Structures are given as C-alpha cells and as structure tokens.
Amino acid sequence: MKKRFFPRFFYSLPYTEEDLQAAAKNAGETLDFPEDFISAETRRKIEENRLELLAQQQYIDAHPKHIIINRLSWILLLFVVGSLGIILFNLENEPLVQYRKHLIMLSFVVITGSRVFATKSRSLIKDFVKQKVAKKNSWLYDPKLSYEKADALNTQFPHVFFRGDQSISVEDEFYGVQNVESKSYYFNSGLYTYKIKKRRRKGITRYKTIRNHYICIKLVKPLSVEFLLKPEIAGGIFNVFNSKEIDLESDEFNKLFSFSYTGKKEENSAEIVKNLSPAVQLGLIDLAKRRPSFRFFFSKNTLVFLFRGELVPSSFIGLSTLKTKSYNYSGVKNEDVERIENEIKNITDLAVSITKYLD
Predict the structure, then answer these.
(1) Cβ contacts of residue 261 below 8 Å, gap of 6+?
(2) Cβ distance 192 to 170 under 8 Å?
(3) What is the pLDDT of residue 88?
C-alpha cells in the first residue's frame, strides 16, 4: 500500500497490495475485442482501472464500515477546524450577531461537506454495482473520467458529440459484445458530459452541465451512405449535415424523425430508404420514444445512439432506491445488479436488434 500521511479512515478508497493481488486473482475472464474496436493501449488502461476498482471493493468488503467512518471523519474535521476558526477570529469579543453569522457559515460548510461525501458514496456504490454487471457478462467496465476519449468521440462524430464551452469528458464506460445469428456485434456505451455557458450574473460566468449517454455499435458490413436522424422538432440545429426530408411509408416515423446528410437528396435518398427497412423503423421508433432528446447517426462503420441524460438515470440509482447501502454496507446486492443490468440491456438489445438488419 502507498505511504499515507493521514490515518487510513481519511482516505475514501484505500486498498492494500494484498487487495490488488486478490482482485487480479478473482477478476474473472473478459471478452476479446478486435484491435480496430479497442486498441491494446486503451484496453491496458481499462484493465488497470478495473483491477483498482476491484481492489477497492475488496477492501470495502473486508472493512464494511469504512465508507461511513470516512464520511463522518471528514465532517468532524470540518466542524473542528471551523470551530477553531470561529474562536480565533472572535478573540476580540465581536458582537453576538456576528458570532451567530460565523455559526451559520460553519453549519453551511458542514452540511455542504456532508452532501458532497454522500454523493461520493453513492457514486462508489454505483461503480461497485456496474462492475459486477460487467463481470457477470464478461464485459469491460471503466469508471474513470477521461478527457481524451471525449475528444476522440468529438473528433470522429462532431455532429453528434458536441464540445460545448468547457470540460468535455467520458466516464462509466461499458465495452461488450452481443452475438446474433452467428454475428458478433461489439458495442461501447458511456456517459458523455460537457458544459455550456449560461447568462452572466454579477460578472460571474455560470455553466450548465449537459449529460448524454451513448451507445456505439460496430457494423459488420459498412454502409454506403451516412445520415443523421434527430427529433422532427429539433429543426436545423446541426451545422455539419444539412436537413433534407425523406418521407417513408410509416407516418409515425415521419412525425418523429427528420434527416440530415451531405450531398443531394436524389443521390442519397434511395440508399437511405434501403437501410431503413420496416423492422429498422420500428426499432428506431421504440428507441426514440424512450427519450425525447436523441441523435441517431448511421456512419459507414458505426451506428451511434445518443440520448440526453444518463443511461441509468440518477433517480434510478439514487441512494434511497438501491438495496446496496453505503452507510450499512454488506456487499453488492443481486437485486441492484439485475435492475441495472436490465436497464442497460433493454437499450443495448434494442440497438443491436436494429443493427442486425443493416448487415
């Protein structure tokens, strides 16, 4: 274990070398992926992150009270340091009203700190559950935040993954495969986050955080045309492809979707319609109804589905809805694994079922 300068209970996710070795021993087998889907270097980093998370869980399993002790320790430290600060600043016997202001400020700091640690605890439990989902299916799961992966998605699909005004990132990634009719469909899903500027107030620039979950599925057979589907009401907000309507036989499809693509309509419409068979249309309609804000991109080698919000909504994995509790931790509950697995598979299964009709 790395040298620590503070008692272990001040560290949110400590683990020993023994925990790391045990994690490597019990990690289980993961699927093989082609090099053009995930590079050897990317996979190496994901494996490192995976083993670290498993080692952290190994430690928490052996010390189930650590999470709540860590949280209370920091809250107590904030309270003690804040109280000492009030005493030191009040040596000149400030009026009682001013003293009360200090106490109110201290209470605010402690409450804020408590909420921050509650969020961290919830995130930790979520990672444990998702890691177990990945292990159960022999998938890869990477909880670590990555700016490089977000840049790569933005560079490859700039009309789908917006850069925003500040700090784009990717996290909570799954890498998996589904076999359908003797074909293997490799998919990658995750959370893509960026910030946009809001109205300035009192000289301070405020930002709004936008979260989108995505699923990228590698096509077995490349397409001969690229096009983007977006909500009909979205209008022409995409500046890479020009909006050009194509009417299909399904009135419901025509009401839900508008098209964007490069080139002339007469050069592309026949090929686009050929890819959008009745079965594909039904699947896309089902996906679109799940979230009102979406972008579906048919690239030549990859099918990209992007939705506003998280793949598993925060309310769904909230601290109060999970059976696995950070303050009374006793291992990851199978009910949580099944619930989150079903939520993930409901969308990935449908996305893959659409993709198979294109090959």
Answers:
(1) 225, 226, 227, 228, 241, 242, 244, 268, 272
(2) yes
(3) 63
